[in-house]
Design a protein that fits this description.
The complex is a heterodimer. Chain A has 16 helices and no strands. In chain A, 69% of the residues lie in helices and 0% in strands. Chain A has helices at 8-18, 45-70, 74-79, 91-99, 102-133, 137-148, 158-168, 174-184, 186-198, 203-210, 215-226, 228-244, 247-252, 261-271, 276-296, 298-305. Chain B has a single domain (44-298), classed as Orthogonal Bundle (MetI-like fold), CATH 1.10.3720. Chain B has 13 helices and two strands; from the N terminus they run αββαααααααααααα. In chain B, strands 1-2 form a two-stranded antiparallel ribbon. In chain B, helix 2 packs across helix 13 (264-298), helix 5 packs across helix 7 (152-167) and helix 10 (197-226) runs antiparallel to helix 13. Chain B is globular and about 75 Å long. The interface between A and B is large, with 107 and 100 residues.
């Protein structure tokens, strides 16, 4: 990327980056600014509109069926799979939450995921700042090392990780799992954050240094607040795969008290495969936090999904 | 920022990444070249673990079958997901008011854990009480009310199509972003010259989307070769029914943790190494071809 223009122009570019209409994280060139002018007719007219909404229904109906089925009784579900969930029954949730141990699994998932996201976002923000600003060649080299991790299929290293954990006493430990996830989030977080730090004008730091601020003060008080949108994107986007991951807890956790939701769900499904209502409730419990996250942070998730487009 | 302060800022990330990602990745290769008796490492054995994969049961039957399923998974996903994704993105283009809402709806299933998606569709497709077969019977399509997941001929395609259903929001977003970068003047010019909408798309827009299509293909390839949680939810670690939903990652998992054979670590590491080479080779090869093509169109 070329040298960032100084002053107000650069600040404008930065706001543009965080709020492009498509939620794309990449800075847009001049050709990206066209949509508003010369309004053209949408392709396909009304027929296409109908098709697009029908497809939206197809994407959503299975999830809605999952939700509605979780509020019905097992007998109801078997006699009429497509019936309405009236009157609402919360028995399935009561059963899954207490007898099915979902309360425990839920707490474990929350602990591991939040811990890992906090860890990887913190260390990556610090590293990204140094990689964006360091002039020595070693930083270029370190950056490529981190970015190589974007392509590494970390799941294939499960055996060495298993023995590493075995030696360090981290088997069957939620802390170990959080450390593992924290590390695996570093490449993506550094990738996104470095791009953002590079777009900030250098004058800010020079001014802060002249005023006697230390490197840490400059970073924490001035730079971090400016990249807050990118930090939010990284944190929100990393939350989803960690919350959903299955292989690592399957291999690294042993006792049921420490299971995260995906592994707990597998156990529950194995033991209660015919208690459909309770299984549906378990599926909803596993999904709810992500839906809530999506509703409050759609922009960050969409930006994360398209971050791969940035060069 | 001077070099020493900079390195201090990088150190925590480097330590974490080094210990939990780089070190295991590097050692996982070395595991494949040693003999193993349980968890005790024996002497260097060269390629013996690799030859075992091609000469010893159950690998001689399971490995080609799993590989074939991964390939079908990739090809099926590419064809269905790219076609639908591109069409949807094209139709959404220039619908400024509804685009965002629809893109968001399409992306919803992506959020849900593959394990949840697998169990959800297992229940929805259940032959006895499943809503899908109930609906098919109600509208008079009894002959279509099949035991989708119980039949080895259909189970794999259910896994593939459910995966497409879950991930469709991703190509829609990427292609949407790429279409946003194609200047309207180009299609306008083609239209002025008498091209139809379809022609303008095929001859002008599509070639400019090749980089985006390439990105999606490479990511789909990596994704398809690593498929684990979704098939696990559908068919367990053995790829039921009758191994018809077995994949390379499942075979790796079984070999490493379920086989009980004394040299499990050696053979499963050899398998992981092959899978790694396949993923890296495929992704790098495709990226190189794309780079050349991109140079070709941008001159």
């Amino acid at each position: 990327m070329s040298v960032v223009p100084a002053g107000i122009g650069a600040a404008d570019e930065r706001t543009d980056v965080t709020s492009t209409p498509d939620g794309v994280l990449a800075p847009k060139g001049p050709s990206g600014r066209r949509g508003t002018r010369g309004r053209q007719k949408p392709v396909g007219g009304r027929t296409a509109s109908v098709l697009l909404w029908v497809y939206a229904a197809f994407a959503l109906v299975p999830l809605l069926l999952m939700l509605s089925s979780s509020f019905r009784s097992n007998g109801d579900l078997i006699s009429d799979p497509l019936g309405a969930p009236w009157p609402l029954s919360f028995d399935a949730y009561r059963e899954a939450w207490t007898a099915g141990n979902f309360a425990t699994y839920f707490g474990n998932s929350l602990l591991v995921t939040l811990g890992a996201v906090l860890l990887s976002t913190t260390v990556s923000t610090m590293a990204a700042y140094a990689l964006a600003r360091g002039r020595s060649r070693i930083f270029r080299w370190l950056e490529s090392l981190f970015l190589s991790g974007l392509m590494l299929p970390i799941h294939l290293a499960i055996l060495p990780i298993f023995y590493l954990f075995d030696g360090a006493g981290l088997i069957d430990s939620r802390l170990g799992l959080a450390l593992m996830y924290g590390a695996s989030g570093v490449p993506f977080s550094i990738f996104v954050l470095t791009t953002f730090f590079r777009q900030l004008p250098a004058e800010l730091e020079e001014a802060a240094t002249l005023d006697g601020a230390t490197a840490w003060q400059t970073f924490w008080r001035i730079m971090v607040p400016l990249v807050r949108p990118a930090v939010a994107t990284v944190a929100v986007f990393r939350f989803v795969p960690i919350w959903n991951d299955f292989l690592f807890p399957l291999v690294l956790l042993r006792t049921q008290d420490k299971y995260t939701l995906p592994v707990g769900l597998t156990t529950f499904f194995g033991e209660n495969a015919t208690n459909y209502a309770a299984v549906f409730a378990g599926l909803v419990i596993t999904t709810i936090p992500l839906i809530v996250l999506f509703l409050v942070a759609t922009k960050q998730i969409v930006a994360g999904l398209t971050a791969g487009m940035a060069k | 920022m001077n070099r020493r302060t900079g390195l201090l800022f990088v150190t925590p990330a480097l330590a974490l990444f080094g210990v939990f990602v780089l070190y295991p990745m590097v050692t996982s290769f070395s595991y494949a070249f040693y003999g193993w008796a349980g968890t005790a490492r024996q002497g260097f054995v060269g390629l013996e673990n690799f030859t075992a994969l091609f000469t010893r049961a159950p690998f001689t039957t399971d490995l080609p079958r799993a590989l074939w399923h991964n390939v079908l998974f990739f090809v099926g996903t590419m064809l269905v997901q790219n076609t639908i994704g591109l069409t949807v993105a094209f139709l959404l283009h220039r619908r400024a008011r509804t685009r965002r809402a629809l893109q968001t709806l399409y992306a919803m299933p992506y959020l849900v854990s593959p394990i949840v998606i697998g169990y959800l569709w297992t229940l929805l497709l259940s032959p006895t009480f499943g809503p899908v077969n109930t609906l098919l019977t109600k509208v008079g399509l009894e002959s279509w009310a099949l035991p989708w997941l119980g039949d080895p001929d259909t189970a794999l395609w259910v896994v593939i199509l459910v995966s497409v259903w879950q991930w469709i929001g991703f190509p829609v977003l990427l292609y949407g972003a790429a279409l946003g970068g194609v200047p309207d003047e180009l299609t306008e010019a083609a239209r002025v010259d008498g091209a139809s909408n379809g022609q303008a798309f095929r001859r002008v827009v599509l070639p400019l989307l090749v980089p985006a299509i390439g990105t999606v293909s490479v990511l789909t390839f990596i994704f398809a070769m690593e498929a684990f949680a979704l098939p696990y939810a559908f068919g367990g670690s053995t790829g039921n029914p009758a191994g018809s939903t077995d994949f390379l990652s499942l075979l790796f998992y079984r070999t490493a943790f379920d086989s009980g054979s004394t040299d499990a670590i050696g053979t499963s590491s050899a398998l992981a190494t092959l899978l790694f080479l396949l993923i890296f080779g495929g992704a790098f090869g495709a990226t190189a071809v794309l780079r050349r093509h991109e140079k070709g169109i941008t001159g």
